[in-house]
Design a protein that fits this description.
Layout lengths: L12 E2 L1 H10 L7 E6 L6 E2 L2 H13 L4 E5 L26 H7 L5 E2 L7 E4 L3 H5 L13 H7 L3 E5 L8 H9 L5 E8 L5 E9 L12 H8 L4 E5 L2 E7 H14 L12 H11 L2 H13 L7
Parallel strand pairs: 1-3, 2-4, 2-7
Antiparallel strand pairs: 4-6, 5-6, 7-11, 8-9, 10-11
Helix pairs in contact: 1-2, 2-3, 6-8, 8-10
């Protein structure tokens, strides 16, 4: 009997230098503001783990650049299954070890929203994270509006574009009617907890939550995405203002484009029906975004 031959692939170790080189190839420069969605496991083995990835991000933008990450928390109030009371200083991020590692870095600053906080480090961190609470989830006067207007780049570091929270900001800024009210749990100064109302919450279904959704294709076709591969890790970089412009124009051309088109999805079906009743208002909101510098990519 012939002896079976088995091939083993040795693990590839990724270094900080590898990540910086890939980010440079994708268009990240010193002085940039970057909003990073990330997946450590996508890299395989990283020498030094999440700390190395954070180091690489900071090196890529340099001393004058700023790194922002989402540090979303499981703080929604769901009755008997209430979430973790949100404390911006102690509540863990639930969107990956890289985000939690940056949150814990000395000097990192976290915004105060109980469900959709962001954390930033760099010279613009304090300015970018302010104005987030009390206020709506993606308020244009808070972090999401500030990093877009500042010309940030959105980076998907091995993470799928299904995690693109900037698209929810577009929904809020256009005034799309299907954003909702919810409740969250916040920690009080004495260590107790209180229930607070959260407005413009991104609950229920969306097209872009699926890896096969059309939104990713729209952004690619519009030339909004630069893609680089580091071994098997896919890195995508998108200018935030271009994302806002492309998606706002897609929404005006195809009302409800960010929603799914499954007939059995009652939420998306009703959302699309409501959008059709307010096209004039949505267009006016988009014109305001253009006038105020949230879509200018010149």
């Amino acid at each position: 009997m012939a002896e079976k031959e088995e091939k083993l692939q040795a693990p590839v170790t990724v270094t900080a230098e590898d990540i910086v080189a890939a980010l440079r190839a994708a268009g990240i420069e010193a002085g940039d503001i970057i909003m990073v969605h990330s997946s450590l496991k996508s890299f395989g083995h990283v020498e030094g783990g999440a700390e190395t990835v954070v180091d690489a991000l900071l090196e890529a933008v340099g001393e004058k650049g700023t790194v922002i990450v989402p540090t979303l928390s499981a703080s929604y109030n769901r009755g008997t299954a209430s979430g973790i009371p949100f404390n911006p200083k102690t509540t863990p991020s639930r969107v990956g070890i890289i985000t939690e590692t940056l949150r814990k870095r000395p000097g990192a600053i976290r915004s105060g929203h109980p469900t959709h906080s962001v954390t930033a480090t760099g010279p613009a961190a304090r300015e970018l994270t302010g104005g987030h609470w009390p206020g709506s989830t993606f308020t244009i006067n808070g972090p999401y509006g500030r990093y877009v207007k500042a010309g940030a780049k959105i980076v998907f570091l091995g993470a799928p574009m299904t995690s693109n929270t900037t698209l929810h900001a577009v929904e809020e800024w256009l005034g799309l009617p299907y954003m909702q009210k919810a409740e969250a749990v916040m920690e009080t100064a004495d260590g107790g907890s209180e229930i607070v109302e959260v407005t413009q919450a991104p609950l229920d279904h969306r097209d872009f939550y699926s890896r096969t959704g059309r939104i990713h294709e729209i952004l690619e076709k519009a030339g909004a995405v630069t893609t680089v591969k580091l071994n098997d890790t896919v890195i995508k970089v998108l200018p935030a203002k271009k994302v806002v412009r492309v998606m706002a124009e897609a929404e005006l051309e195809h009302p409800g484009v960010l929603l799914c088109d499954r007939e059995e999805c009652a939420f998306c079906r009703k959302g699309r029906e409501d959008i059709l009743k307010m096209q004039g208002e949505i267009r006016r909101n988009y014109e305001r975004l253009k006038e105020e510098g949230y879509t200018d990519i010149s």
